[in-house]
Write a structure and sequence with these properties.
The complex is a heterodimer. Chain A is mainly beta. In chain A, about 0% of the residues lie in helices and about 50% in strands. Chain A has no helices and twelve strands. Chain A is globular. In chain B, strands 2, 4, 5, 6, 9, 10 and 11 form a seven-stranded mixed β-sheet that branches. A four-stranded antiparallel β-sheet of chain B has the order 1-3-8-7, with no helix packed on it. Classes of the chains: A mainly beta, B mainly beta. At the A-B interface, strand 5, strand 6 and strand 11 of A face strand 5, strand 9 and strand 10 of B.
Chain lengths: ~110, ~110
């Protein structure tokens, strides 16, 4: 069965500083990997996704993520955080062999200090 | 990406009653997914709904408690039956996009059971 771990429950970062959110997955083959953001009271918005090819993926809002097969990781990064980036971030894994179901990590709540 | 209209956006219900949540998609999709997000928690898949067949439920979820209908390729409902305060959660529907792999989510239904 596939699983996703986000080791950091909370992260506090100063506005303008860089941000990295960790995601580790467990799956026998190469999965589909996603990062979603959920702002307070809002639904889920897709930031970026990886299926194959270039392991560095660019997303919306200035986010990028790097797939590292050797580390089973898909960490999310942003060079300079804005106050509007304060939200909950979810890493998710899916696979065709798993019926296209998404399995979500526990989420990381990002707080941005002025 | 598909556009999903999910209703109601929120509701407060008495214990012992039932609530039906609707998801309407602006395009035909094969698979629809229903998730639950308990307060402060991540998303957990309840079931996968394919048109023309019975929904497939994940471990810990049963049809008697969460009956699902999928009458056509653009619509699905999830009913939360005989509700208790423990059912207070956000319920989200999701579809797999027809284009490059991705999943779109409805805006969610915030359910409070009193």
């Amino acid at each position: 069965a596939q699983s996703v771990t986000q080791p950091d429950i909370h992260i506090t970062v100063s506005e303008g500083a860089s941000l990295e959110l960790r995601c580790n997955y467990s799956y026998g083959a190469t999965p589909y990997l996603f990062w979603y953001v959920q702002s307070p009271g809002q639904g889920l918005q897709l930031l970026l996704k990886y299926f194959s090819g270039d392991t560095l993926v660019q997303g919306i809002k200035g986010f990028e993520a790097e797939f590292k097969r050797s580390q089973s990781s898909f960490n999310l990064r942003k060079p300079s955080v804005h106050w509007s980036d304060a939200a909950e971030y979810f890493c998710a894994v899916g696979a065709r062999a798993a019926g296209n179901k998404l399995t979500f990590g526990g989420g990381t709540r990002v707080l941005v200090k002025p | 990406s598909a556009v999903i209209s999910q209703k109601p956006s929120r509701d407060i219900c008495q214990r012992g009653t039932s609530l039906t949540i609707q998801c309407q998609v602006d395009s035909q999709v094969t698979m629809m997914f229903w998730y639950r997000q308990q307060p402060g928690q991540s998303l957990t898949l309840i079931a996968t709904a394919n048109q023309g067949s019975e929904a497939t439920y994940e471990s810990g979820f049963v049809i008697d408690k969460f009956p699902i209908s999928r009458p056509n390729l653009t619509f699905s409902t999830l009913t939360v039956s005989n509700m208790s305060p423990e059912d207070s959660s956000i319920y989200l529907c999701s579809v797999e996009d027809a284009g490059p792999r991705g999943y779109t989510f409805g805006s969610g239904t915030r359910l409070t059971v009193v």
